[in-house]
């Protein structure tokens, strides 16, 4: 996240039926803050995500709804991370009759299933279960705009983290053909070409995978072991991320481990302790 983030207003109307309200929680991983979205054009509105429940966020939500002469009837949570559902209590304190929906719901919440529809005046949403970032991750297609709320699977700046790489890539492939317009991400600015950005994400992940394979095919002169074709994740990081500061290498190692685990499940690599090797070098 070394590049400068663009400024985003605390509250901004992005389209006739979509208002973004920042969560008031800027940071290294949350960028300008969590994006929460008020949807609809009538007196009843949908809300996507609740930020962390910061006082500035709930105040901005309340002021915006007063200006719109509207109220929140349903809140849709993209996934369980605190910066997306941490404001549920504050929301219910203001609007206690709001229905809260989340995949794999917690106490008092309602379930979101794949293909479920949510409608208010001016906004029709179709839910899409797209795990990878988290197992419960949901995206939402806004039919009126042929747009998608991508949660944390696709961000407006940089790349996303994920719990399972193979599942994440499957979800990206599932998301890409379902809309043609913009992407409203969980963090960062609106992405004008949503499917194009998803394609870029997929290419990036495939390239990282190929980098790991290419490095495993080479001899590890730094390993200092009898088998110089074996690599630890950090050995791989030092080659693949050689132009990245050492302080960021531990975080990069997590991503490399995700790639290695995917390749292991595909039978392409094997592991002994923390030493990783190609499963069949003779085939190369």
Q: Could you please describe the fold and organization of this structure?
A:
- This protein has 284 residues and is of the alpha+beta class.
- It folds into 2 domains: 183 residues, Ribonuclease Z/Hydroxyacylglutathione hydrolase-like (Metallo-beta-lactamase, Chain A, 4-Layer Sandwich); 66 residues, Orthogonal Bundle (Arc Repressor Mutant, subunit A), CATH 1.10.10.
- Helices cover 30% and strands 22% of the residues.
- The protein contains 7 helices and 13 strands.
- The strands form 3 sheets. A 6-stranded mixed β-sheet has the order 1-2-3-4-5-6, covered by helices on one side. A 5-stranded mixed β-sheet has the order 7-8-9-10-11, with no helix packed on it. A two-stranded antiparallel sheet has the order 12-13.
- The radius of gyration is 21 Å and the shape is elongated.
- The model has no long low-confidence stretch (mean pLDDT 94).
The CATH class of the largest domain turns out to be Alpha Beta
Unreliable segments of 5+ consecutive residues = none
Might you state the CATH topology name of the largest domain?
A: Metallo-beta-lactamase, Chain A
Evaluate the radius of gyration.
Answer: 21 Å
Query: On the 0-100 scale, what is the average pLDDT?
Result: 94
The side-by-side strand order for the widest beta sheet comes to: 1-2-3-4-5-6
Organism: Echria macrotheca
GO molecular function, one term: hydrolase activity
Family: Belongs to the metallo-beta-lactamase superfamily. Glyoxalase II family.
Domain Metallo-beta-lactamase: 33-187
């Amino acid at each position: 996240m070394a590049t400068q983030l663009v400024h985003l207003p605390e509250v901004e109307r992005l389209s006739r039926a979509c208002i973004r309200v920042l969560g008031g929680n800027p940071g290294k991983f949350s960028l300008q803050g969590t994006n929460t979205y008020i949807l609809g054009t009538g007196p009843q509105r949908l809300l996507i995500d609740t930020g962390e429940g910061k006082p500035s966020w709930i105040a901005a939500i309340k002021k915006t709804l007063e200006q719109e002469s509207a109220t929140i009837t349903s809140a849709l949570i993209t996934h369980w991370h605190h910066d997306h559902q941490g404001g549920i209590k504050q929301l219910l304190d203001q609007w206690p009759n709001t229905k809260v929906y989340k995949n794999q719901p917690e106490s008092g919440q309602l379930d979101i299933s794949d293909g479920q529809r949510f409608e208010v005046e001016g906004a029709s949403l179709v839910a899409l279960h797209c795990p990878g970032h988290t197992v419960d991750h949901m995206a939402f297609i806004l039919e009126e705009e042929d747009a998608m709320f991508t949660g944390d699977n696709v961000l407006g700046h940089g790349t996303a983290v994920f719990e399972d790489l193979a599942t994440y890539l499957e979800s990206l492939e599932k998301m890409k053909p379902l809309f043609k317009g913009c992407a409203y991400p969980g963090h960062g600015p609106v992405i004008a070409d949503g499917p194009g950005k998803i394609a870029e994400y997929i290419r990036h992940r495939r390239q990282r995978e190929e980098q790991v394979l290419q490095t495993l095919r080479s001899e590890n002169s730094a390993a200092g072991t009898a088998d110089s074709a074996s690599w630890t994740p950090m050995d791989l990081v030092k080659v693949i991320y050689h132009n990245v500061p050492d302080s960021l290498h531990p975080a990069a190692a997590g991503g490399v481990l995700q790639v290695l685990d995917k390749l292991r499940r595909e039978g392409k690599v094997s592991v002994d302790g923390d030493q990783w090797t190609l499963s069949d070098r003779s085939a190369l």
